[in-house]
Amino acid sequence: MKTKKVLVGIAAIGLALSLAACSGGTRGGTTADDSAGSSKGALVGVAMPTKTSERWIKDGDAVKASLEKLGYKVDLEYADDKIPQQVQQISNMLTKGAKVLIIASIDGTALSDQLDEAGKAGVKVIAYDRLINGNKNVDYYTTFDNNEVGVQQATSLLTGLGVLDKDGKETGATGPFNVELFGGSPDDNNATFFFNGAMDTLQPYIDKGVLVVKSGQVGFTQVATLRWDPATAQKRMQNLIASTYSDGSKVDAVLSPYDGLSIGIISALTSSGYATDALPIVTGQDAEAASVKSMIAGQQYSTIYKDTRQLGDEAVKMADDLLNGRTPEVNDTTSYDNKVKVVPTFLFAPQVVTKDNYKELLVDTGYYTEADLK
Ligand code: BGC
């Protein structure tokens, strides 16, 4: 028990150091200029979930470009958020002779037959951003610290309400503030990490009565949003306003786990009569251009920036290592149990963005140009 605690402590320090090192920019190792060595020309399959969200387009483009720069062939596919389509695409990649698969899954449990086949053929599998569950042939995983994303979303909600100050200290504000909660897609392993991280942070304030979830809908399954669909979230927000807030009370904050949902939630609020300067604090994730514009316009309050360039570079580095007989570097060997094994993971650090720091985080780093946000 004691040894375990010490090991966990060491791992945590290691992770903190690595995350600190990475959040500043690129880290050492393979760059896009390194050669692919003897594996040059090998096919890498890249399976992305959907083009309806801007982030996955950025991810796919970045991964493809870096792999091609290293001399690999790339089969990049998007699956319209349809599970059978993704299954078919991955089968095709295997038929075409892919040597590595980089997969951002739609349903983290639906790819077992394909992964079995990959395992038999010696094809390596890298889970990209979302963990693939229930199969031993998931060799590596790279993602952002998903629990921390939830913590940051909840913390920014509390800051936006004035319960915490900018340094994270309690202000003594007692509310009560009306809050409604939204979760991500139940088949995406990340969604519960986000929700649990957020709820661990919010629960003490719910317990003290500073926050009130007026609808009473607090369980993940009650608040989840299948396939992260913005229209589903918009509809649920409309229903909440009509059912829970018809007495004239106001929503003060909405925990939203993804920018696409936040845009839907804000639409529901404005069409129900909330003026821009009286909108609740609405959180988000991904720093999508539409949401950054909404923050600049004083609508959405915050988002979480996950630099997809870092993630893409890492997945490419892992693929290149695997194709050349090297062991990929990881910084987390405890957090991501896919129900069959703990998958070795390289984690990156997410960051909270608001109107106050978007220039520094998103424009100065070249993630967006000022023109992208006009
Ligand atoms: C990703 C988030 C994204 C969500 C919806 C999650 O798996 O980690 O960045 O907002 O999917 O696309």
Task: Please tell me about this protein's structure.
Its main location: other. α5 packs parallel to α6. The chain is elongated. It is of the alpha/beta class and 374 residues long. 42% of the residues lie in helices and 13% in strands. It has two domains: 35-138 and 307-348, Rossmann fold (3-Layer(aba) Sandwich); 146-306 and 369-373, Response regulator (Rossmann fold). The N and C termini lie far apart (55 Å). Mean pLDDT is 92; it is low at 1-34.
What's the gist of this structure?
GO terms for molecular function: carbohydrate binding. The chain is of the alpha/beta class and 374 residues long. It is 42% helix and 13% strand.
Ordered list of secondary-structure elements with their pairings:
Elements: H1 2-23, E1 43-48, H2 54-69, E2 73-78, H3 83-95, E3 100-103, H4 112-121, E4 124-128, E5 140-144, H5 146-161, E6 177-181, H6 189-207, E7 211-212, H7 220-223, H8 230-244, E8 253-255, H9 259-271, E9 281-282, H10 289-296, E10 302-305, H11 308-323, E11 345-348, E12 351-354, H12 358-363
Parallel strand pairs: 1-2, 1-3, 3-4, 4-5, 5-11, 6-7, 6-8, 8-9
Antiparallel strand pairs: 10-12
Helix pairs in contact: 2-11, 5-6, 8-9
The chain binds beta-D-glucopyranose.
Subcellular location: Cell envelope
Pfam family, one: Peripla_BP_4
GO molecular function, one term: carbohydrate binding
